[in-house]
Amino acid sequence: MEGETSRVTAAELVVPPLYVQDIFNLAPGDQLVRREYIAGRGKTRTMLAVAWHPAHFAAVVPDLLSTAPGKNAGLTAKVLEASGRTITHARDQQMREPPRPSRPGRFALLRTF
Question: Which of 4, 55, 67, 112 could covalently link to 8 via disulfide, CB atoms 3.0 to 4.6 Å apart?
Fold first, then answer.
């Protein structure tokens, strides 16, 4: 079996839906970078995910707005280097939102700890 791969299917600066604005404590109209990607192992797709990044990261790491295959690898390191930040801890978070008929879009997101 081959190693894990990912393919970015969308990368754009957007005004996020209200439920994402709430999570990031954004004012109405503020933007985020939205990256949608598919991950897999070999020919098997294992995940469809959306990652949200602060908009100002796109100015220092333009690759956040690219869907080119060669620009996905090492993106976290590029953000850390450009921003001067370090990762001091991490935890797995499962993010879900109960279905709501009034919420547009294909993906749901809500922090659960």
Answer: 67
Give the 3-state secondary structure percentages of the chain, helix then strand then coil, rounded to 5: 25, 30, 45
pLDDT at 87: 79
Alpha helices in the chain, H assignment, sequence order: 18-24, 57-60, 75-83
Side chain identity, residue 63: D
The token pair that represents 106 in the structure block:
């294909």
Quote the CA–CA distance of 17 and 47 in Å, as a whole number. Answer: 22
Structure-derived torsion over alpha carbons of residues 22, 28, 31, 32, reported in degrees to the nearest 10: 0
Q: What is the pLDDT of residue 69?
A: 85
What 3-state class would DSSP assign to 96? Answer: coil
The average pLDDT across 62-85 equals 88
